[in-house]
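Researcher: Structure for this, please.
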Amino acid sequence: MQKKAEIYRMMTDEHVCPFGLKSLDLLKRHNFEIVDHKLTSRQEVDDFKEKHSVTTTPQTFIDGQRIGGHEDLLKYFGKDDAKNKETLSYTPIIAVFSVTLGLAAAFSWLFYQSLVPLKTLQFFVMISMSVLAILKLRDLEAFSNQFITYDLIGMRWVRYAYIYPFIEALGGIGMIAEVGLLVICPLTIFIGTVGAASVIKAVYIDKRELKCACVGGDSNVPLGFISLTENLMMMLMGAWMFIGALN
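Model: Predicted structure, token format:
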């Protein structure tokens, strides 16, 4: 016998509740027969909340018993929401590095008609720097709020947090174009070295639990290996390109 569920969710001309859609999808994936009650006005939403003494929608009922909102429904199905959020915190990093690796391989194929390992690696680092800079620049205030809590220079000179993403972007773009390397590479080495030292001190010496600003402000990526890797890549690529420019 098919299980039955009722869901009450907000769906007005001005707003479609995303958690209502997610709850509906969750019920469908668990093969429920669903009665979908759409609350199509603010008055209907307020009346429903008052009637059932709840503060939010959506609300799901299974066999006449109120389960609750979206997070309650996840728990009902045995989903570990805390674990899901921890896994999702790395999603931006996975997305950035997957796409930049693909772009690096594409550039290598375009220019050399093969996947030259060294050139692919170079493109990967330089494109990653540029994309990570974009993520920081989209909200400089949010980035600076996280960055200055651990960066050795940022803690002492706040304006450095506003300059850093521009240097990272300039480094990535300049190294791709191979323009101004005698200036760009030392700057890249500098921010990479300071960044790596900052992460090592904050995480591995002081044992602080912080969020990484590497993908911009308000991220849930823990400060540690990812940020350290980003800074080491900048250091090494800056040094490699600088040596090449001198020859």
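Researcher: Any notable elements?
Model: The mean pLDDT is 89. DSSP finds ten helices and four strands in the chain.
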